[in-house]
Amino acid sequence: TVGVISFQLDGGLIDANSAFERMSGYTLDELRAFHHWQALTAPDFAAVTARHALDLAGRGETPPYEQQMVRKDGGRWWGLCAPRRIAGDGPSAECIEFIIDVSDAKAAEDALRRSEARQLFLLQMNERLRSLSDPGDIQFEAARSVGEYLGASRVGYAEDQNDGESVVIARNYTRGVPALEGRYHYRDYGHQLLLGLQSGRTVTRAD
């Protein structure tokens, strides 16, 4: 379960075990064909690996660290990396690195953070709405809370008029864009929108 690679600090990969081949999706021959091991690192983590490479060149070791890496299929995965210099010195040193795939653990952490953020959002919105009694004010404050939480430019309620043709927007939260208050017709948004809403499904439109 532990990937192991050896590499030239300023160059390509020398060797890799089968665990790392499975993690990365590359065969050993494909890994050796890379001009530089940095090609396996997600671009936004290049500075992280460069900083640890300086430690390896100067001190021969660096604390374990996490980075995102790129699989052969283009997908990303999280690796917990523990490198050490084993021969030579400076930029031309030969190093070995032990790597554990911690993608599942990172996904669980991210899900927990999202859940906590949602709970905090709901508590804050509840506090905003607690003292309100007017339905219009409640709608607006709920829309404003959602808009600020999502960073959206417009959030509002569209009330169906039970005529199969139109909705009315009384108030909506906006940020930097015009408000869309008034009556709007389903036909302007395509027949599938009304069918989706009537079936009770959540409807998403890219436009």
Chart the SSEs and their pairings:
Elements: E1 2-8, E2 13-16, H1 18-24, H2 28-32, H3 46-59, E3 65-70, E4 76-87, E5 94-101, H4 103-129, H5 135-150, E6 154-156, E7 159-160, E8 166-169, E9 172-174, E10 182-185, H6 191-198
Antiparallel strand pairs: 1-2, 1-5, 3-4, 4-5, 6-9, 7-8, 8-10
Keywords:
207 residues; alpha+beta; five-stranded antiparallel β-sheet; 6 helices; 26% strand
How would you characterize this protein structure?
With 207 residues, this protein is α+β, with helices and mostly antiparallel strands. It has 6 helices and 10 strands, in the order ββαααβββααβββββα. 14% of the residues are buried.
Rounded mean pLDDT is 90
Structural class: alpha+beta
| Strand order in the largest sheet | 2-1-5-4-3
Helix percent band: 25-40%
In whole angstroms, the N-to-C terminal distance is 45 Å
Tally of contiguous helical segments: 6
Shape annotation: elongated
**Strand elements, count:** 10
Q: Approximately how much beta-strand content do the residues carry?
A: 25-35%
* Oligomerization state: single chain
Biggest pleated-sheet summary: 5 strands, antiparallel
**Radius of gyration from the CA trace?**
27 Å
Enumerate the spans where pLDDT stays under 50 for 5 or more consecutive residues: none
Q: Which H/E pattern describes the elements?
A: EEHHHEEEHHEEEEEH
Nutshell version of this structure?
The chain has 207 residues and is an alpha+beta fold. The chain is 37% helix and 26% strand.
